[in-house]
């Protein structure tokens, strides 16, 4: 990827070396962190080097009567205006500059106190644009924004403090082909989604590969989100219990189950720590009413925690489950957690997923199997 803002925009910190060298350096880093626990080959899944990001947010920089997109600078002490951003997928790129043109050509209705624009798009060319304001939005704004929806062939929302204006709806619908099957996902504007669709498909396919080696029992998932991994992996287990703390994500997950005609998943709104307490019988939760936890026979668990990694209780809980699929957005906390998990399990497979080209961030995954006593 070539970008005129390399070296000044803080969004891409790795720009002086080519993409293949970036991958090599990340592979060496992750392999080094995992070396105490895994001596096999690290499977590396690359990304398109440009047009890979389906989610993006830009500040709006006001200079006189003109608005421009802006990003934090590489020194992290200010911002720069940007004239291109080749990392966003085509569904965003073909709309974002037309949007800016329309904003600048409009009266103050669209630009007054506009401070940011967020994009959420799909590989099927759907795009949801959220315009964020420091002022109350009225019917005049809605009328102008509705015209933009038609002109840009997209969905537009407006947000200001304690106000959300939905002109058509607040989600996009993504369709992914994974291991010969098609899965449909409703993705809401305020919910978490994987930012790199191409690498996301590879992450799910790798997880399916591990699930196929098990072939029995029930499946437990923590941090399930909108069902990104849950739906495809549900085909390889008898029953699934998936937990997530976000109400919006649970709502989307239930919708996605219905969209994909999957009926062996039960979703529960629990934090990871609460899931541990519930499964260990420490506490009862009204949110689990009607769910017989004791009836599950978990052969496999998948965890996909935030950068902080797993809490001690969750590690203790999953240490009793035979197979563990651990997806991590922070290889350092993954290595920390493996120091405990490998007391009972062996790492059978390990992989690196480059969700964020041109940055130091990288996702990784390990598959662990409990040692025979």
UniProtKB/TrEMBL annotation:
Pfam families: tRNA_U5-meth_tr
GO biological process: methylation
MF-aspect GO terms: tRNA (uracil(54)-C5)-methyltransferase activity, S-adenosyl methionine-dependent
Protein keywords: Methyltransferase, S-adenosyl-L-methionine, Transferase, tRNA processing
Active site, renumbered: 329
HAMAP family: RNA_methyltr_TrmA
Recorded family membership: Belongs to the class I-like SAM-binding methyltransferase superfamily. RNA M5U methyltransferase family.
Species per Swiss-Prot/TrEMBL record: Sulfurovum xiamenensis
Gene it is expressed from: trmA
SUPFAM superfamilies: S-adenosyl-L-methionine-dependent methyltransferases (SSF53335)
Residues binding S-adenosyl-L-methionine, per UniProt: 194, 223, 244, 304
Lineage of origin: Bacteria, Pseudomonadati, Campylobacterota, Epsilonproteobacteria, Campylobacterales
PROSITE patterns: SAM_MT_RNA_M5U, TRMA_1, TRMA_2
Enzyme class, UniProt record, top EC level: transferase
Enzyme Commission number, as recorded: 2.1.1.35
UniProt-recorded name of the protein: tRNA (Uridine(54)-C5)-methyltransferase TrmA
């Amino acid at each position: 990827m070539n970008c005129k803002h390399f070296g000044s925009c803080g969004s891409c910190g790795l720009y002086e070396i080519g993409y293949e060298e970036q991958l090599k350096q990340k592979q060496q880093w992750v392999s080094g962190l995992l070396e105490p626990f895994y001596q096999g080959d690290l499977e590396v899944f690359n990304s398109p080097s440009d047009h890979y990001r389906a989610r993006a947010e830009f500040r709006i920089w006001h200079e006189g009567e003109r608005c421009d997109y802006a990003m934090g600078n590489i020194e992290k002490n200010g911002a720069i205006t940007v004239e291109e951003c080749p990392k966003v997928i085509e569904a965003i790129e073909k709309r974002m500059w037309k949007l800016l043109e329309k904003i600048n050509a409009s009266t103050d209705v669209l630009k007054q106190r506009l401070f940011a624009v967020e994009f959420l798009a799909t590989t099927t060319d759907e795009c949801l644009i959220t315009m964020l304001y420091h002022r109350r939005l009225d019917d005049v704004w809605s009328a102008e924004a509705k015209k933009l929806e038609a002109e840009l062939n997209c969905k537009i929302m407006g947000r200001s403090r304690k106000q959300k204006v939905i002109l058509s709806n607040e989600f996009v619908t993504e369709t992914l082909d994974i291991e010969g099957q098609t899965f449909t996902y409703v993705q809401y504007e305020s919910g978490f989604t994987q930012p790199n669709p191409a690498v996301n498909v590879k992450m799910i396919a790798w997880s399916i590969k591990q699930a196929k080696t098990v072939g029995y029992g029930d499946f437990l998932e923590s941090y399930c989100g909108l069902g990104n991994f849950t739906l495809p992996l549900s085909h390889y287990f008898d029953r699934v219990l998936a937990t997530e703390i976000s109400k919006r994500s649970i709502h989307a997950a239930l919708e996605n189950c219905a969209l994909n005609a999957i009926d062996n998943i039960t979703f529960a709104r629990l934090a990871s720590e609460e899931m541990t307490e519930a499964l260990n019988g420490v506490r009862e939760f009204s949110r689990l009413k009607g769910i017989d936890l004791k009836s599950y026979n978990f052969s496999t668990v998948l965890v996909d925690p935030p950068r902080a990694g797993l809490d001690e209780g969750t590690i203790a809980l999953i240490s009793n489950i035979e197979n563990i699929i651990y997806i991590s957005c922070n290889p350092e906390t993954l290595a920390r957690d493996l120091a405990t998990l490998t007391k009972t399990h062996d790492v059978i497979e390990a992989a690196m997923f480059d969700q964020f080209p041109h940055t130091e961030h990288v996702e990784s995954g390990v598959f662990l199997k409990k040692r025979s006593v």
